[in-house]
Amino acid sequence: MLKKASLGALCAILSLAALSCGSQEPARPENGSEPVSAPASGTEAETEVFSSDVNQLPEPELPDMDFGGADYQIYSEWVYSSSSLFPADLFIAAEALNGEIVNDAVFNRNLKVRERFNTTVKKVDASMSAASLILAGEPLDLVMSDGVELGYAVSSGAYQNFIDTPYINFDREYWYPQFVEGTHVDGRVFFMPSEICLDPVINTAIFYFNKRLFSEHDLDNPYDLVDSGTWTVDEYLNLVKTVHGDLNGDGIMDAEDLYGTLVKTEFRFGAYLQLYFGCGKTFTKADPDEGRIIVTDGEFCQGLIDKIFDVFKDKTVTKEWDGYEYTEYRRMFAEGHALFCMDEIGAMDNYREMEDDFGVLPIPKYDVEQQGYFHRVWPGVGMFAIPASAPDLDKTGIVAEYMAWISHNTILPAYYEITIQQKRTRDPRDIDMLEVIRKTLVFDFADIYDTHLTNWFWDSYSYHSYALRVGASWKYLTKRNQKFVKMVRGLD
To answer: What is the mean pLDDT of the chain?
Structure first.
């Protein structure tokens, strides 16, 4: 018998992750808690104490179960990662201890699972699509795949409503309850991220900043701006316009000169999208009648485009980078050619040999009145789905919950440790910043499913006109969004 999630429980999940739609200020969660802001500068992150030793953790309240030595089979498909050191499937299984702290944390987590439930976590590598295997009756326990690909695949009927899975505590932060808020249709969620795999954190866009350039230009400490709530889009743009120059004196601004900021313009990674979500905005919100509706505000969107357009298009202060090849882009920041660089957390791999010290910052708020910071997650990150062929949902649910809980307390801090150690100078405030970012990840239905809204939305920046792209295509985009809503509603 399935242990169904009650409507009341689902409402509690949604209230914990409530985000605003169509207003300038993000809504406060209904339970009265505050949106996440930065802890005081120079202090430890205001979060629970992480343990590096899985055996020292207090056990969660889960019943004893013995699965008789059977494998716990997790299908693992290749997933894009901005990190060369931490591909998504690394977090599923490790063959042996090797002294690398993330690898060893994964190995010890899976060993603990085997001791607790008498089941061995086994990674099933992709030989054919997960949906094909499931529909052929392959008894998989869990699937990890690209979120966008899962968005396509759910129409096949290969996956079950995740909310129906027993033992999973969807209100826990290691299940990203904000994903449910941003993507559910009438309580239906057919795939979701989890800290079993840190791919969502690794592939979230942030700002890197060059500490030497901040010091040489006598600029305010950007950590203090975050702490005080004054790290805003306007503050960022003002700083960008402060630091730039023709370093080689040839009269041409090229990759060897100094810029205020480096930003990506490839549409799915585009800076405008990251800043829009950073302003507390989303594409859609839940609706009791329509399932999900598009809620983008044309006046606000055009205002944001106008605010950033002239600065980003000024080739003397900004270097825009179009395309998927970022080697030169990252070289420029690593060699001290920019005050800021927008990149994913996982891209820190590329800066470990950087001579200048650097720091990390959240995406700026729209203004000082905005409560908290927000960060759009790249929709193609590794996510999990419950196969229709899962032989035992109790086993699927209880092991997944246990793995996610251990991962949050051991693998996440191990990743922080190795990531920050790559810097020339270790600064605990970067851990504070990473925690602010992790706690404020945003997911959206129209971004993950192929509604085309992401494409049109990016075009509105490229065309310098929300009305010309999104506004003019509103009926088409609404119809396409409803196509996917109808598909999800028909899966029960």
So the answer is: 88
What pLDDT, on a 0 to 100 scale, did the predictor assign at position 40? 42
Which residue matches tokens 């998989």? 140
Could you name the CATH architecture of 7-33+46-202+379-442? Answer: 3-Layer(aba) Sandwich (3.40)
CATH number of 205-376+450-489: 3.40.190.10
More confident: 58 or 45: 58
Long-range contacts of the stretch 22-29 (C-beta < 8 A, 24+): 22/281, 22/285, 22/295, 22/296, 22/297, 23/297, 24/279, 24/280, 24/300, 24/366, 24/367, 24/369, 24/370, 25/280, 25/369, 25/370, 25/371, 26/280, 26/370, 26/371, 26/372, 26/374, 28/371
Answer whether residue 347 shows pLDDT above 60: yes
Look at residue 28 in the predicted model and tell me its pLDDT: 30
Phi/psi at 291 (5° precision):
85, -70
